[in-house]
Write the structure tokens for this entry.
Amino acid sequence: MTGIQTKQTASGKFVRVLYWILLLMRWTVSAVQAKQTTSDNFLRVLCASGRSAEIPESADAYGWLVGSWELEVLHYRGIDLSSQNIKGEAHFNWVLEGRAIQDVWIMPRISGRKSDSDRTNNMYGTTLRVWDPAIQAWRIRWINPVSGHEERQTGRKVGDEIVQVGARADGTPTRWRFTEVTPDTFHWIGEALEPDGRTWKIEGEFRAHRLR
């Protein structure tokens, strides 16, 4: 084989390799774009720009929460963590044509999460609060897949607070409250009723400050 033929063969191989590289790059970009489109479409059909007209303004207990919040963790799973300076975050938005508010509560914050995070102080869960006109209240479902913790409650405005009450599968009554509410802060307290039927034990407690 002459030098010219060798160069032509090498050039042909280079062109073929370049072709396949470009084809692979194009496929990768198309796959990423398709995935992004799917994600965008999901968010578009899930999220809503505001409250549905079906919900009376006077019953809008949760709309003020829309946005992002930093959480100061005071209690979690019944343990006092106030001295440990643990931070979390929470994000809220209208969903399902404005008939519901969904949130995500995260602890520790995304920037500090590790794959081997302590499951006892690890939260990455979501709440769906759906307005039910039949009872003029919000039906609430919380789940934290990290620990398997689930709650079902009903929420209403009670004076200056928002109070959610429910019962666990074993019959234990629960009470979760948004207290000391301002446009940019709130105090969240989660309690369960002790067997004596009178004492409420704090299981979770957060102070929140609006990020945006």
Summary: The chain has two domains: 1-46, 57-210. DSSP finds one helix and eleven strands in the chain. The chain has a mean pLDDT of 88.
